[in-house]
Amino acid sequence: xxxxxxxxxxxxxxxxxxxxxxxxxxxxxxxxxxxxxxxxxxxxxxxxxxxxxxxxxxxxxxxxxxxxxxxxxxxxxxxxxxxxxxxxxxxxxxxxxxxxxxxxxxxxxxxxxxxxxxxxxxxxxxxxxxxxxxxxxxxxxxxxxxxxxxxxxxxxxxxxxxxxxxxxxxxxxxxxxxxxxxxxxxxxxxxxxxxxxxxxxxxxxxxxxxxxxxxxxxxxxxxxxxxxxxxxxxxxxxxxxxxxxxxxxxxxxxxxxxxxxxxxxxxxxxxxxxxxxxxxxxxxxxxxxxxxxxxxxxxxxxxxxxxxxxxxxxxxxxxxxxxxxxxxxxxxxxxxxxxxxxxxxxxxxxxxxxxxxxxxxxxxxxxxxxxxxxxxxxxxxxxxxxxxxxxxxxxxxxxxxxxxxxxxxxxxxxxxxxxxxxxxxxxxxxxxxxxxxxxxxxxxxxxxxxxxxxxxxxxxxxxxxxxxxxxxxxxxxxxxxxxxxxxxxxxxxxxxxxxxxxxxxxxxxxxxxxx
Length: 515
Prior knowledge:
Elements: E1 17-23, H1 29-42, E2 45-52, E3 62-70, E4 90-93, H2 96-104, E5 114-118, H3 125-128, H4 138-148, E6 151-155, H5 157-163, H6 168-179, H7 186-196, H8 200-216, H9 240-252, H10 255-271, H11 274-293, H12 302-315, H13 320-327, H14 330-339, E7 351-354, H15 358-364, H16 367-374, H17 377-387, E8 391-394, H18 398-409, H19 418-440, H20 442-450, H21 459-473, H22 476-479, H23 485-498, H24 503-513
Parallel strand pairs: 1-4, 4-5, 5-6
Antiparallel strand pairs: 1-3, 2-3, 7-8
């Protein structure tokens, strides 16, 4: 039997079946490989499993490779140690972009391969590190995998696993059973899970749900991620400290910008305190008056809406105290437990990587102290030698938690710090430039605001972003003299977002200088 429609192999002819599993750390790829091997051996087949480790999503997922064949008395099968491009029967990917990588490696072929993949995303480092939107388009990957494979099974297996209190490997195993790519019945698959003895009940639930989903609707539509939505204005803030801020928004600003402003207020209260959010509304009130005087009412106060977003982000800059605060929050602990599918009685340990430099330490100190250290190179170098090294801190220990909590506590005194003074000065220079541009060209003023996207992160990432931002802003006076200044500033912004080292931006700036 060699049924191309079902994907089954000819057992009587003792044909080999090859399976490649691509999984990231914590997703149970090794467990899935063990289940497949146990399944085959329990059915009287010979099976072999090998693995080629990756480093999560820096260099790709770990590839587990399995070959199996019926045992014959006349000869023992000889199995390969690694998958050969163009000769893999089943490819299982624990995440959509890992499925794309399997296609690029040549593991998936339209004549032979059944591709089973989850459609959820776990963003790669290469996607996160880009200054702009570096997220790969899942719709493009979905189309490519559909053409590349003989048969495609694609839906959100991660969601199924979480709903059933299991890990994605159990859902992928259920999808594999439903495809009939292996000549074993469902009971044999379930027995393999039962024999493992760990998390059997939840794994069987995830297995069953994925099995039925594969039979009923094996491929789900994958689309580009929707734009983020801002928090709607509530009827009541639900928190005494927010009441006056919500009332200020309702009485001062038009309906079209209120939701954006409320989102900004919530962000600033969480970042520091309600008084800091009041400072934000004071600044936004001045910008709104300028927008109205420049005819903003005919444009839906687009300048005010854009400023509400970018000013809030600029005022909640990332610093070492903010990072420490986020790492010890209960919400982070809860998210980690969900991500690793930890049971209620399971102890989860978290090790955080912390790498502050002397620059960050000086920035967190009171302004006069930080300037005193920076003005003395020898003192600064000694301090940098002491603090500029990576530290791994276990936040589930008393010492580790208290260390980060002490750093986070400096955030309450952020207003008097050197970093805060510099951020405020840089922010006001940017807003002044935006207002000046607005006087001659409304669209240009909007683009000056939008360029704030270039500034993000902290430490080296922040320094690179500020450098590119300042270089782009240096072209605004020149562009303000042109009717198409907003178009050119948008091009500069896109060039700065497109590459890490700013090479493309340098070329674009030379072009602008020659206009």
